[in-house]
Amino acid sequence: LLNSTIFWDNRLEKAGLLNKTKIAEGGRKLRKNWNPSWVVLVGNSLVFFKDPKSQTPSSWKPGNSCPESSVDLRGAQLQWANNLSSKKNVFKLRTVTGNEFLLQSETDSLIREWFNTIQSVIDRLNRE
Ligand code: I3P
Fold first, then answer.
1. Ligand 1 atom at minimum distance from 31 CA
2. Which pairs count as long-range contacts for 58-65, CB under 8 Å and 24+ apart, including other chains?
3. CB within 6 Å of ligand 1 — which residues?
4. Which of 28, 79, 80, 82 has its CA 20 to 30 A from that of 88?
5. For the complex shown, is ipTM > 0.95?
6. Model confidence pLDDT, tens digit, residues 41-72
7. What is the model's pTM?
């Protein structure tokens, strides 16, 4: 556990609570289902954890908690998507496999930070 914790700490870019809904799976449209999600940007992946009420910044680490899903950011596309929701501060993440997520926060500065950080990881992967 200690080694895997150190591994995660070294690759951790960002973690926090966002509202999330998946809107497409493999290009097929899904019905929205907004839920708060503990979101962790680590290495080349965005990892989602359920039940944020039981999550703390230490409890999502390997061995303590099981991720709900994870997204490979290589080749992914990010765009602001306030046209796709009645909520404010929404952006869309589309993976190469055609999975699409909306992520949202009521806090303007927070959602901008998430957008910029995820975009910088995508840009880094595109340069590799
Ligand atoms: C949806 C729900 C979503 C809403 C969506 C509704 O209804 O209200 O919150 O998305 O709007 O269809 P239901 O619960 O009956 O599925 P936003 O909150 O993002 O606006 P949409 O169909 O215009 O995407």
1. 16
2. 60/15, 61/1, 61/4, 61/5, 61/8, 62/1, 62/4, 62/5, 62/8, 63/1, 63/4, 63/5
3. 31-32, 34, 85-87
4. 28
5. no
6. 999 999 998 865 655 555 555 555 678 889 99
7. 0.86
